[in-house]
């Protein structure tokens, strides 16, 4: 017999994943009938191709360390669905999720009956559940990670936005957002709010021009990495930070790599701007919070060590820009060889991802598959195109083979789609318990 929680999850996942009309009409109608909880929530919106999860993790820790009750809306989850809606790093309790689904379900039925196209999608339903929960629990600031776009995203609603963060802009979700950087940047810049600051990570010139133009048109103060703020790498897990408020000499991070420092720098810049904007604390006091909070921040699935012998890491490099970032991070380990296990969803640019990985002479690549989700299947690596590479259909076997071939000084790295990484991570931790 299914539990109430399992039935609630089945209902959520049973909603359509994508609707033809890419506007906020459905989510706004749903929120209106729920009493507009979003209008009571102060939010920081986080959009971008990669880096959203890390930036949210760093900023959440910084705001919690400042004494605030902080909501975070993230995707995808790594272990359990409830992680997608959390307060002070605690996922929404099962019973609370059940109660909220029971509350929203009759409203959804009304909308479905009135107009099939007005019936909200899965992500729109989850977004509404998030706003209801955060309002009910008295969250002081919510960090809201966009789903795919910006202008067209379900989170782009009339909440009390304090700031927009744009982490990176690259080629991903082209079928929905467009097939050029200009089109993708135009959509993501749609999240920039009137008279509210915008913080960005490194953006390609083509995308940056769009962001700057939209920010100017909307009177949004722009804070950009390498311009209004910056960082310098001191070693693999330590950097210094500079902005208009002064320097912070040494900031350490648990997570490895220049891109983690980049994401941390974006979060620090956002935090300092929020401190000034909301009178949270004098900006001069933020240094102590930053040096305490950043080293505590963890982000599951980002170059995370899941086994020591042999040294085995997982990393959710789920698209082409993320693979490029991963390869640049691996350059910080020049003496090592890497046995890399890859599984990717079929709707990604998996051929280019494979080409990038196989171009690195230090990488021995193992291609595999996983179950995927709903209509999104795993890329088929059994085709002649990949005949010269190691293909092992069963991902558990692929990982075992890669680990057996990894020497003590080298690394096994499991990467690809975030859904795959979540599955692998759960498998490792289950084996540890057994």
Automatic annotation (TrEMBL):
Signal peptide: none annotated. GO terms for molecular function: ligase activity. The keyword Nucleotide-binding applies. Its EC number is 6.3.2.17. Pfam families: Mur_ligase_C, Mur_ligase_M. The keyword Nucleus does not apply. SUPFAM superfamilies: MurD-like peptide ligases, catalytic domain, MurD-like peptide ligases, peptide-binding domain. It comes from the Bacteria. Keywords: ATP-binding, Ligase, Magnesium, Metal-binding, Nucleotide-binding. Residues 301-417 form the Mur ligase C-terminal domain. Residues 47-270 form the Mur ligase central domain. It catalyses: (6S)-5,6,7,8-tetrahydrofolyl-(gamma-L-Glu)(n) + L-glutamate + ATP = (6S)-5,6,7,8-tetrahydrofolyl-(gamma-L-Glu)(n+1) + ADP + phosphate + H(+). NCBIfam families: folC. Belongs to the folylpolyglutamate synthase family. This is tetrahydrofolate synthase. The lineage of its organism: Bacteria, Bacillati, Bacillota, Bacilli, Lactobacillales.
